[in-house]
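Example 5.3 — Solute carrier family 12 member 9
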Amino acid sequence: MIAQNNIRSTNNDPVESSESSPITGASNGGAGTSRLFRQFGSLFSSSAPANDPAGYVEFGSISDPAASSGRTLGTFAGVFCPVALSMFSALVFIRVGFIVGNAGLYVTLLQFIIAYVILLFTVSSVCAISTNGAVEGGGVYFMISRTLGPEFGGSIGTLFFLANVVGCGLAISGCAEGIIQNFGPTDGSDSGSIPDGRWWRFLYCSSINTLMLIVVLIGAEMFAKTSMLILGVVVVCLLSTYISFLTQGPMDVNIPHENSLVNYTTAKYTGLQADTLWSNLHSNYTKDYTSNGNQVNFAVVFGVLFSGVTGIMAGANMSGELKNPSKSIPAGTLSAVLFTFLCYMALSVLIAATTTSTLLQNNFLFLGPINLWPTFVTIGILTATFSTGLSNLIGASRVMEALAKDRVFGPLMNFVVKGTYKSNPIAAVIASWVLVETILLIGSLNTIAQINSVLFMLAYLATNLACLGIEITGAPNFRPTYKYFTWHTAFIGLLGTAIMMFVINSIYALSSIILCLLLVIALHLFSPASQGAQWGSISQALMFHQVRKYLLMLDSRKDHVKFWRPQMLLLVSSPRSCCPLIHFVNDMKKGGLYVIGHVKVGEFVDNDSSHDPTIEEYTQWLSLVDHMKVKAFVELTLSKSVREGIQHLIRISGMGAMKPNTTILGFYDEEQSRDFFEYEESPYKTNEFDGNGIKLFPYRKSGETKSLGVVEYVRIIDDVLRMKKNLCLCRHFHRLDKQMIARNNHIRYIDVWPVNIFEPKNEDPFDVVSQFMMQLACIINMLPVWKKLELRVFLCESEAVSENSAAFERPAEHRLDQRLKLLRISASIHKIPEWNKDIDFAKHRNILKQFTGTSDSNQVMVEENINRSKLYMQRINQIIRDKSNATAVTFMYLPTPPATPSVDYKEKCHHYLDLLTELTFDLPPTILVHGIDAVTSTTL
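Solution (predicted structure tokens):
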């Protein structure tokens, strides 16, 4: 326990009873705050000085990432080259002809425009996130997880990891296809440098995959350094293709031997001709000879096209190696997108103007034979696909490493963290390599392309969703330096990716979304909860935005009794001794507001700078709510007295129209408290609040003096009623055992005694207090566990009242039965014969009124009357106990406390509480209830 220099704290009991006990000051809030800032600072800054005692936060380009260890890449080498190479991939030399030949030039250009519009808006979202804070390793996963929170971030990160794995398999398949085309059998013969066949192709793919593994194991920096050279080679090869289109004349090109869909062996290349361009303007879908003759359509073509341009995240994936991610990612990605778009548009037009659709549909690798230097095409295919595969393999391993470091899946991925050598995630690279091998078993490049497109689109959708959500919430700290982002760009990107996912393949799209949702649920249930607090979750921002809006719309002036529900404020001193009561009130709230309130007695000292101790204790109470598994808010206050503090809590708890209407106190008695956190058979047993020799939430032990006096307690009761709040006093709830109720058939009843024992009248079953009492009992009886119990209402009539029963049209029992039916309360009515035989109410009514607020304030108490009243209460208590052998909970009428000021007020308070103590002695868990407003309705 830390010293509270500025607080003079007496640690008085807010409500002293077996249900609640005193609480002392709480733990190291100052240290926890500093630690929180250090964690937050380390999250956004990779270069925070180790000797900084408080930590600091660096955002975006404000920090100096160049000073960070391991960050060596600039914009061109680290972003532009990887993105451009990934967007060329297998598409540029292998599949553009397939797209133009089937979709036609018009549709091809339209598809490229659609794809690049989606990409452009997604890039805007990526740029917005990457310029709003320092980006660490993990790229897009890091951005999404720190924006959407651990559940959505972890699930989308997992799917993005799988997308990179599939993208690597796609690139390898394209590379192997190029090798077979150039070095395998031709013209249907067995001649060729290497054999061909399904398993031979798998062997070649595995060899390429293994070669990539070796390169990546050496390190990402090597790939980055060579990416500029590789991109230069690809651009030279692409230029040779453009030159060939412009210079080569007509020729016949062989059809690949694996194409068994046609019976001819050659097709025509015409060179630049208007007739050829005209014939290729419109769609002409046929069958795909590489996937067992599956029919080609718009969706298949777009899936293949989009799979080739999914590399916009390649630069973001290298965020851990970039000198300045917040500047390099936007500049490098946008320039690469523009560059590849122009290349693809030019290539599509030239193909449509020079090559017949027959050749385009039946030889996807026609660029080699028509090239002035065929070797250039081979080199282009191999370098483009190999570099794309490398980029995806590196990206997959980095995302997997980030998932492992964040412990998104708990200890399941610890092997990745342990398997890191010199900042290179060896274990993650090998695991990614194994998964790529699995993808290669699919075989068909076009099939892999559709899966790849859907997974990447889901990642893009999540990125746009993250930006859209955080922009809508209006979070003040979302201030990206990238100026071309608005919620409109995020929404268009989100809508475009969602639609095109299902256009490509609705089954793949639906499956990936279901997988994503399952991952979200699994991570929500099993992922460490601390991450949400460290990263921040957009769900919290969205909920705040919506809750504030609806709270403003919730107008207390429009409240109607039909829709009344209990809004509970439970005042607790120590939760250790009142766990069953906390749980019971959670059941009784019926979906309403539930606030657990606590008063810490003390005051600020002006000449000291220490902080409010309730700030430190607040997190401990939140942990308590989590442990108890109750849906409650916590309100703490510091005041000079318990009474004053409770007044504060009643006034300030809740917000707007959602404020407590019912206050619940523990009963003031001398019963020994029980520690439910230590009690072996307690369902609330825990060591969470014990540590370093300090027990949080201490309670009054046997023999310790009560710090809350009787008069102050009664005045608190009076205050609650004067503040127009319904009131409940709870006694014996340390005896409540819900588990025993569930499994024991001996406990069968919930009892309601709707009679004011201090002043019995025939109208008692129908007054506001009694109806409020029955409403609470009915609510409890509606819940699972409690539903099996029978609700009993006891009708207590005195002889004196019965003499005047002719004044009523019907007997009280009949009127009560009709009332219960009108209120739709299923309860049995029980008359008490002993009431008339053993007790003379007329004799005691005026005596008992002395101790309530309905008496003459100047009436002096007589000792004889006090003794007679106690005997009266003991007789009533015996009657109730005789009826309560199988009762789980008893609801009783709470009379108003003595009026203030009055003669002998202090004595009256003592006698008032003594009589309530005698009345409830040795009963089952009992609630003394006083309602002030109508809460039931008989109308629709």
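Remark. Residues 736-799+809-939 form one domain.
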